Amino acid sequence: MSQTTRKHTTTLAGEEVTYEVSRSDDATQPRIDAGIDGITVVLPASLDEDPETVLMENAGWVLEKKTKFDQYRADIPDRTFEAGERFPYLGEDHELIIEPRQKSEVVDQTIRLRQSAVDQSSVERALRNFYRREAREYLSKRLDQFAGGMELDYDGVQIRNQRTRWGSCSTNGTISLNWRLLMAPPEVIDYVVVHELAHLREPNHTDAFWSLVAEYIPGYETHEDWLEENSTRLVFSADDL
Q1: Out of 3.40.50.1220, 3.30.2010.10, 3.10.28.20, 3.40.50.1000, which CATH number does the structure's domain 86-240 have?
Q2: Minimal CA–CA distance to 66: which of 14, 7, 19?
Q3: Number of neighbouring beta carbons within 10 Å of residue 19
Q4: Positive or negative, the Cα torsion across 5, 7, 10, 12?
Q5: What residues does the YgjP-like metallopeptidase domain cover (predicted)?
Q6: 162-211 residue pLDDT tens
Q7: Do the Cβ atoms of 97 and 103 come closer than 8 Å?
Q8: Long-range CB contacts (< 8 A, 24+ apart) of 70-75?
Q9: pTM of the model
Q10: Angle 207-216/123-150 helices, nearest 10 degrees?
């Protein structure tokens, strides 16, 4: 489990940086997560360390990421959540259609939402629920397939609304994956799945870890770069930020 505190502000090399602090039971050492939603300092729950010290020690990296993601924010889709709008599904844009039907599903390059689901909440909520349902089914299948090939056992999967990470692997073997991954291309999704499964064997990003990832996802660097360069395409709504 993790708990995030309110936003803080500090100054790095003369530049003001806003960040959050998260304490995690799964973290074994301090780390900094940087994304289009901002900077988060993740600290082990049992470690008494000043988050500003962690930021100062990595000031160059933090400022580089901040500049990049500030630029990315300008490219965030301005979604209106109306019929006819296009949303990515497994890397390809699909037209949103709202109609009377028994189940929301993908049909011939369209996402067809059940009218009653929209009437009971909103287009945005109905579409979010659709993505989460589809993500659970799709990601679970990919996890099972790769876990079998890698001869690894994981202890369940959680489809989460993570703000700064695409996936994580807890110390007890539970894999958590971000439902927004369903908007990414299949090969990118497979990279994230294998990345998290590899942590079951190699907890840290050692050479052995990356060799294991490369064994099952040759050229994984391409997919890693795609995620970094196309994060804005996977922003669902302003609530993500």
Answers
A1: 3.30.2010.10
A2: 19
A3: 22
A4: positive
A5: 37-229
A6: 766 899 999 899 999 999 999 999 999 999 999 999 999 999 999 999 99
A7: no
A8: 72/36, 72/231, 72/232, 73/36, 73/232, 73/241, 75/232
A9: 0.75
A10: 100
